[in-house]
Amino acid sequence: MEYSENYLHLGEEIDMDDFVVCEYRVTTDLPMPEAASAIATEQSTGTWTKISTLDEEAFAKYSGRVISIEGDRTSIAFPNEIFSIENGGVPQILSVVAGNLFGLEPIRGVRLEDIHFPRAILDQFPGPKFGIEGIRRILDRPKKPLVGTIVKPKVGLSPKETAKYVYEAGAGGLSNGKDDETLVDQSFCPIEDRTVAVAESLDRLAEEGHRMIHAINVSTSGHRILELAEKAQEWGATQLMVDVLTCGFAAVQALREDPSIKVPIHVHRTMHAAITRDPLHGIAMKPMVKLVRMCGGDGLHIGTFGVGKMKGLHHEELGNLDACVGEDLPYKPMIPVTSGGLHAGMVEALVKIAGLDIQVQAGGGVSGHPGGVRGGAMAMSQAVDAATLGISLTEYAKSHPELAQSLDKWGVV
Ligand code: CAP
Ligand code: MG
Predict the structure, then answer these.
(1) What is the C-alpha radius of gyration for the chain, rounded to an integer number of angstroms?
(2) What is the pLDDT of residue 2?
(3) Coil, strand, or helix at residue 217?
(4) Does the Cβ of 342 fall within 6 Å of ligand 1?
């Protein structure tokens, strides 16, 4: 029987409980209704030509619906039934909402800017095990920003040197340390020796009354990551780090759902700019923040609000922040990690923008300090204290020489 395959449902009310609704920005020479329909078609029940195997009932049940078009923006609603969560998960979700559509010939650019999931799908994901409060509890840290470092150089330090760096950072007051994203298990710094040595530093700090955790990077091939994470934990890891885009969202979820993993998961986003940077094509960070939180990351890099070294879109980074902590997702809040070219002189500006529930993290801004790692750590901690107390950095620096040295070297932003 002939029926009309119309993917346009402009102005129609839909029940948000029954659909995953995606917001796209589209650049095309086609009229927008045609371009949006092409996306809905490709990503649900259609293809480039009409097919004999699609019947009216399947079309009505499973087709994507273009529910709004405003300028170059369109919202497309995909029925819950076309998602396969238990077997499929985020890889399957992405193949629908962020799949072939990026290559459609008549569409010059398309960017997935946001996703809204219905409760029925959200409830099938675990969310963070620890989140902000859980990490604060481990650190016994009141409501002020977590303050961390990335051991620098990225590569080249031995386990002993790494452990010394971590000790000095903790002695200077930092709450969080982490491996850099390119370090995993190279011969100059084997992961077992590094993890054991860092754990000794953390134990020593604890004996001296300071709690700190350090994320060991277990980013590796899919078939090895759980084993490596479990081993790292046995060797004394207090936190694990995973690169979500190179390892996959499923890697975050696998770590979260492994009952033997009992430490928080720090999620790095190396490679994200290949996907997020172009405002007209790719995937904005916000949908990926939501997916990481759904999968169970406890903390995630979200940018520096235009303050640090990495290119970012200020208004989008505020949206990322909201996706980390907002109550529209039924999970614990995930700690937003702000990192990339940061130093003490930026902390006040960051706290003004993002508040106290953030992790401020500096690599070069700690180890490039004239007073070495300890001096740099003290300067960062002092800056966090000043910002928490609402005292200006320049004022606080008058009685805090390490902060003053940092401001002399790098200024105040
Ligand atoms: C920062 C960093 C982080 C980036 C990631 C680096 O070092 O360790 O990986 O911040 O960026 O390797 O650049 P510095 P983002 O503090 O020395 O700059 O958080 O935007 O993903
Ligand atoms: Mg790094």
Answers:
(1) 23
(2) 65
(3) strand
(4) yes
